Backbone:
């Protein structure tokens, strides 16, 4: 997915937020915004938002000398998510369709996003998502592919959200490889964040070799690209991974909540909608969406 003009003010807003977390020096923050503005001038709209975001956040870290400004925020969001874990498991236990509920819980965790969605309340937003209908729901195809697959490649998104992913991984009951970023970027999950969430108890954790807010295959490690190429069932969490992988011809299921109009428009839904979308989509599924298998 390419960037749009509407992405430019969003990039500046995210840069300001990250700079303020990294430093309270207003002069330095102003210099950062100046530099980011210069970067945006030279970034073509044909590049994907994660490619642009990667350059911007690298510039912020370089100028502030802080390689992980969101470190404390990530740890705190994971602790809060872990406090919800018994409740989330209880919701699965009492549901009529355990897999469907666990999948919805995984998407509910996507509200934890310090890039696109700074103003979130985990407990409130989780309950809101659990009671919301899907705008796109390729659940029938999801179940079919899951039953046919030997192993799951699960591309994670944000720290804290990993706890919600863990609930779905436990319910899918298949060997799973869980993918994290190779270095800190916004509040995206790294190896340490996944460990804190307990992902190592239910999956093998690997790095994609990517240090940007989305797994851009051209930048990912050869090891990850080999694993990805050989995967017959891929789950991709969040907007950044959708932006990076939405043009891929691969059996990917995108699980996310849309938090900006650009992505909502690209998916044909409304901002705030929750989505389980199989790609590429070519026929209607039993839930009224499209089946990626034909």
Residues:
């Amino acid at each position: 997915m390419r960037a749009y003009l509407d992405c430019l003010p969003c990039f500046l807003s995210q840069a300001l937020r990250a700079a303020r977390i990294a430093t309270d020096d207003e002069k330095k923050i102003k210099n950062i915004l100046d530099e980011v503005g210069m970067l945006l001038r030279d970034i073509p709209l044909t590049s994907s938002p994660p490619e642009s975001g990667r350059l911007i956040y690298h510039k912020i870290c370089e100028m502030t000398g802080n390689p992980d400004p969101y470190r404390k925020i990530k740890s705190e969001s994971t602790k809060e998510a872990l406090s919800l874990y018994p409740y989330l498991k209880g919701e699965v236990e009492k549901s009529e369709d355990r897999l469907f509920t666990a999948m919805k819980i995984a998407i509910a965790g996507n509200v934890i996003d310090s890039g696109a969605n700074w103003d979130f309340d985990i407990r409130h937003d989780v309950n809101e998502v659990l009671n919301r209908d899907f705008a796109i729901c390729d659940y029938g195809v999801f179940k079919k592919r899951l039953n046919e697959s030997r192993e799951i490649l699960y591309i994670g998104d944000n720290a804290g959200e990993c706890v919600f992913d863990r609930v779905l991984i436990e319910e899918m009951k298949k060997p799973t490889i869980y993918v994290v970023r190779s270095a800190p970027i916004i509040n995206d999950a790294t190896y340490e964040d996944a460990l804190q969430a307990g992902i190592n108890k239910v999956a093998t954790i690997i790095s994609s070799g990517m240090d940007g807010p989305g797994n851009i295959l051209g930048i990912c490690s050869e090891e990850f690209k080999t694993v990805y190429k050989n995967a017959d069932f891929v789950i991709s969490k969040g907007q950044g991974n959708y932006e990076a992988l939405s043009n891929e011809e691969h059996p990917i299921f995108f699980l996310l909540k849309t938090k900006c109009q650009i992505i909502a428009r690209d998916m044909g839904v409304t901002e705030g909608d929750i989505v389980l979308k199989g790609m590429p989509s070519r026929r209607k599924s039993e839930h009224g969406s499209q089946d990626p298998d034909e």
Observations:
- The mean pLDDT is 90.
- The CA atoms of residues 101 and 234 lie 19 Å apart.
